[in-house]
Amino acid sequence: MTRTDADQPTAGAEAKDVQGIDASRDGWSFNMMLDPRFASDPRPFYADLRDGCPVRDDLDVPGHKPTVLVSRFQDVEQTLRNPQQFSSRFGEGMGGLGNDRPLIPLQIDPPDHKKYRVLLDPFFAPRKMALLEPDVAVLVNQMIDGFADRGECDFTAEFAVPLPCTVFLRLMGLPLEDLDFFLRIKDGIIRGNREPDLLRQAEARASAGRQCYEYFERHLDELEREKRPGLLGDLLDAEVDGIRLTRDEILDICYLMIIAGLDTVTDSLCCFWSHLASHPAHRQRIVEEPEVIPAVVEELLRWESPVSGVARMATEDTDLSGCPVRKGDNLLVFVGAANTDPEGIPDADKVDFDRATNKHYAFGGGIHRCLGSHLARMELRVALREWHRRIPEYTLEEGCELVWTPMLRACERLPLVFSS
Ligand code: HEM
């Protein structure tokens, strides 16, 4: 079923119940994001969204911009593959991230987007990432050393959060002592310090954003005086068509790395380990057959979709499968819903490590497809391999209730108990 203007869940219209949510009063997107059930298991919401989607959430609420919720495989594909029609220069009304300028390359449209990817892609190429693998394996083992003998850990705090951040600092050539600072500003920018109030969240983002710019300014000044190895120094020397990046451009790239490269891997680790802790057969397959790990990474990325969706803005009036889209509308593109759409993926509701092909949108699609996918895959593969070599048996702590964050799907605590 495709919804049109006439049957949108607007204020005062007849309610469409999404998992018991009164969409007529508060709108699908607002309500869904706030529902803790969406955060813990978005799949039933995705199914409801696909049933009635695309849907235009056109609420008469101050500060709310009409938002089109895109969830079917073919609509997600169409949106991501048409950057001219569906721009990435969103922001207003989608929750600013404390940044002064568009993030590079995420919020840059064609044709400029290409020049940044041409410059950045080689730094994140598979063979470059493979060089980091031995170092990441050592790091993973050091982290496991910290809790293996205890027989338990809080996976989030002791593994999923520090691992990608440490890898990132090493990649950039930044001091490892800055780990706590990075974790603080990342949480400030992405989650508004978890402040309950929206205004306070915006203040937290602005303050974290300022600190982020100041931090990188300071390090770039130092690097200009004295070169050190690492990506940050490499960016100072990088050129496209003989032209170097400006200071602002480098800052805008670094700002995005903090948002795109740290939390996403943490989210994926939380999603993977919570799944594996409650699916012993899947765990056992990894232990007995480690060569299946690359397929596990792809399948759990598809199934869990740690990044639920991405944002776009319509540049012209158009429609998606019959749903009107107006110039200036925001679009929330649920890659997680596409990844579990039976119309796009065979046996979409089954976790299957033996798929012949696995075309998923967990890393997005089209020109903005994730720059760090090879780094992320390598971190996830190494973590799965080393962990299951040393800790093959583990479960969730008895009675624990996991609390998940929506859209970027991490759990606040993931208490695991190991058994021999
Ligand atoms: C499993 C972990 C990760 C997931 C699930 C993920 C997911 C995504 C998604 C869905 C997009 C598309 C955004 C859009 O279309 O609006 C994206 C873009 C991006 N990601 Fe990742 N990401 C991950 C890890 C990383 C890492 C480790 C880095 C870098 C260190 C990174 C850097 C980026 C950048 C720079 C972009 C923007 C690319 C562009 O606009 O051309 N990501 N990522």
Tell me about this structure.
There is one protein chain. With 420 residues, the chain is α+β, with helices and mostly antiparallel strands. It has a domain of 289 residues: Cytochrome p450, CATH 1.10.630. Helices cover 48% and strands 10% of the residues. The protein contains 18 helices and 14 strands. The strands form five sheets. A five-stranded mixed sheet has the order 3-4-12-9-5, with helices on one face. Strands 6-14-13 form a three-stranded antiparallel sheet. The longest helix is centred in the middle third of the chain and has 28 residues. The radius of gyration is 21 Å and the shape is globular. The N terminus is likely disordered. The site of protoporphyrin IX containing FE has 24 residues, from α13, α14 and α18.
Gyration radius, to the nearest Å? Answer: 21 Å
- Whole-Å distance between the termini? 51 Å
Helix run count: 18
Q: Give the C-level CATH assignment of the domain at 5-93 and 128-171 and 263-418.
A: Mainly Alpha
CATH architecture of the domain at 5-93 and 128-171 and 263-418: Orthogonal Bundle
The 3D shape can be described as globular
For the largest sheet, list the strands in their spatial order.
3-4-12-9-5
Q: CATH topology of the domain at 5-93 and 128-171 and 263-418, what is it called?
A: Cytochrome p450
| Fraction of residues in H or I helices | 40-55%
Query: Structural class per helix/strand content?
Result: alpha+beta
Ions, cofactors and other ligands present here are:
protoporphyrin IX containing FE
Mean model confidence by pLDDT: 89
Q: In the CATH hierarchy, what is the superfamily of the domain at 5-93 and 128-171 and 263-418?
A: Cytochrome P450
Report the biggest beta sheet as strand number plus sense, adding barrel if it closes: 5 strands, mixed
Number of extended strands: 14
Strand percentage lies at: 5-15%
The poorly predicted ranges are 1-26
